[in-house]
Amino acid sequence: MSFLSQETFEASTPAGVEETTAPGAGAAASSRNNGDFADLLEKLNEKRTTAREDCLRELIAGLRSYTFVDQAIANRESVFSSLVGLLRRSRETEGVLCAEALGMMMLLIGPEEDEIFNLVRAPLEFVITRGQSERMRIEATRALALGSFICNTEEERTLAHLAFFEALFTGESEGGRASEELKAAGVDAWSLLFTVAPRGYNTHESRALLLENFLHLLDASSADLRVAAGEAIALLREHWRQEGLAVHDVSADEEEVVDSIVDRLQDMAREGSKRMSRKDKKAQRASFREICSAVVDGQRPEEVISYRTRSFRLTSWVKMKQVEALRDCLQGGFLTALAQNTVIHDIFDLDPTAFDVPVERSVVAKNSELGRWRTTTRSRNRRSREKAKHHFTEEGEDA
Questions:
Q1: Does residue 78 belong to any structural domain of this protein?
Q2: What is the pLDDT of residue 397?
């Protein structure tokens, strides 16, 4: 799988740092992790909701820290089946965690996994359109977009999901009215899939309609939605320039909408609403200066991602939107995945041998997400045991 060329994703020279694992430590860690993961799968069937939520948190932390990745992939059918089953009957917190875990798992299993994607697609779509919890709908939107981006190989399915997310942020979804936070997630989901949209996706009519919708969203009260819409416009303009869209190819309706968008972006790059704080105004100006430069002048965005002594430069909106989706999914585990995840290497055409990482991770760092979770859980369990012991002692004295 190769979504991108290597032209604008550059790496510095390798660091050449060697790291080793103590003899026998890798095998012992692998055996311990196998046992821990088997326990996790069992705990997903717990009757208590709080126990299942704790289990999901540990699963997500273990996937992000790459503690359970091999075990999760080896048992992927069981993992996906359990997560989908929980998602169908979950309430807010558990449902959010299920969707988050599903997104992580789809990133890990990689491309050309249509069978598994079709297993999770319908439940996620149902949550997005029919779910009662706004947080669940937002997380399900992110998971569905990432799954379609990574696992799906059917062009018709990609086109269907582009239309699905467009309906979400235009208010035409089957689920009816969506909050601005959900619309922002919908715009970001649409933008991610647009980076791999089939050629010929946009016609004159659809281009003009998309631009009108994004122009309308630039006046939203949510800063996240305004920025998402602005970045989507920049992504569209970048794509059309690369496709060599000439002036005579632009319809009169399109030209009029583009002029309105340029005026609006320039206003937003200079000032902000009186209702906004000084900090928010500053953030909006910075975001929209970059967006305005891209739309008006064709200037490329630029971001440098550093890992140890290596650095990577992103210089296109395609790459920026793809990395943004990966960061949302991986959060604190992004750099770990950047070094070890072969799916990410394929997406960005990276050489996996350029990363100096240990062959096996034998110890969970105390300050890692999984390490902090385990510390908190152990403390909570210790307090519960002490409370039960104290209660038992008091009953004995009363007798």
A1: no
A2: 53
